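Marked as duplicate of an earlier ticket. Keeping the data here for the record.
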Amino acid sequence: MSPKTTNLAILFADVSGSTRLFETLGDATARVKVSECLDTLTDVTNNHKGTVIKTIGDEIMCTFPTSDDAANAATEMHEELLEDVTEGVSDTTQLAIRVGFHFGPAIMEGGDVFGDAVNVAARMAAQAKGGQIITTQSTVDLLAPMIRASTRFVDRAPIKGKKEEIEIYEIIWQEEDVTRMATGLMSEEMKPEVKLRVRYADKDILMDKQHSSLVMGRSNTCDLPINEKLASRQHVRIELRRDKFFIIDQSTNGTHVLIGNSDEEFLRREEMPLQGKGQISLGKSFSENPTEIVSFAHEI
């Protein structure tokens, strides 16, 4: 049977700060908490006509027939965790999830879902913070008026494989968020634009809202090719999200980051914010005295 293409709302939800949860509670207790969380997310999905496609670690992927179903499920996921799973957990380790979803054409095959809508939904989840629901403008346009009234524009984000940036929105699910968002929007208008200068060899790149993504690696097709044998072809990416720059490792050998006088950070399939100024080494620790070093510094 050939794969079936249909319009669906694809939703990703994962536990925010799960690493800290395991460090604070210990592996056994944290696993129980994460499992309880995923069980709750599964129940909510089923109650809103959804289908759980799979769980990966502390993340759940599911589909819904309409954007309204996905939005209502996302809201209830947050509400249920506040009332249920987090009961008895200290404030410093309280569970929270981040949710991203998108409505569009997807391919259903072998119990899994593929396609552009899946990639965009995953990108929305990556944009979300703990306690947030993030989606696309095209999805917001499909929402019922009452739900659409509780959304706000957040930012524009680059999506792999797309020429134009996508406008992303937040669905406000708590009443107190309305006041917080309104005051936040006022203060954001007064903020200076953040910029990040990235230097390597004889190349100097300034990142800002117009140039919000930078790929580094061994391939000449990268925005900043790095002459390091241990580097992957497209080793690491720097992105601007809501006035903060993040470095996202997507390599085999990992990325080493030095920020100021702090200890060296090692990333492998992980991400972290870039603050102040520092250095980046692809695939090789700074203790090995790498020669191909990328420097970065914030500018205002």
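See parent ticket for discussion. Helices lie at 18-25, 27-47, 67-85, 116-127, 137-140, 145-148, 175-188.
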